[in-house]
Design a protein that fits this description.
182 residues
């Protein structure tokens, strides 16, 4: 493969994400080749231009060596990232469960305050009911008493009226009557 014959991959090709570890290693290799090419271009600018041919087998062996050097680390990094991602998902689920527990706890606190408030109002209602029963009993007693007093006054009034009628009758009887002549 010729160094000069390779097309220059622009920055857009370098920003593409590799699909697998092999692609990633090829990108790294291409980046290394590009940096070597830039260094050789600097040398070429000061030295006469020469065509350099590289054996394809040598390139393949270099690529294989580079891959064998970087690939195990990349695979272990990939496994570590997958494990971290899995652990992160587990942590997110656990955190979500804890948030749910806190919400339920807050709901229970609200529920407890509602029950406490309900007890207070229930006690107030019981007290009001007792007072109403007591007032009802008092009014019933007062009504009975007023009825008795009314009956007693009526009885006294009747007795006075009867007494007055008796006195009037007695006075009528006491009034002298002229005698009848026969």
């Amino acid at each position: 493969m010729e160094v000069e014959g390779m097309e220059d991959e622009g920055p857009s090709s370098q920003s593409e994400l590799p699909q697998s570890e092999g692609d990633f290693c090829v990108k790294i290799l291409n980046t290394d080749v590009q940096s070597e090419r830039q260094a050789s271009l600097l040398l070429e600018s000061s030295a006469p231009v020469e065509n350099v041919f590289v054996d394809k087998k040598a390139v393949d062996k270099l690529t294989e060596g580079l891959l064998s050097h970087y690939l195990p680390d990349l695979q272990s990094s990939k496994r570590a990232l997958q494990e971290l991602t899995q652990n992160q998902l587990i942590l997110l689920d656990t955190l979500d469960q804890e948030v749910t527990k806190f919400r339920e706890c807050n709901a229970l606190l609200d529920l407890n305050s509602l029950f406490t408030e309900a007890k207070v109002y229930h006690n107030k209602l019981v007290n009001i009911r007792k007072e109403m029963i007591m007032l009802h009993e008092k009014t019933t007693k007062l009504k009975k008493r007023s009825l008795k007093l009314q009956q007693q006054k009526q009885k006294e009034a009747l007795e006075k009226e009867q007494q007055r009628e008796k006195e009037l009758e007695r006075e009528r009887q006491l009034i002298a009557k002229p005698a009848k002549r026969t």
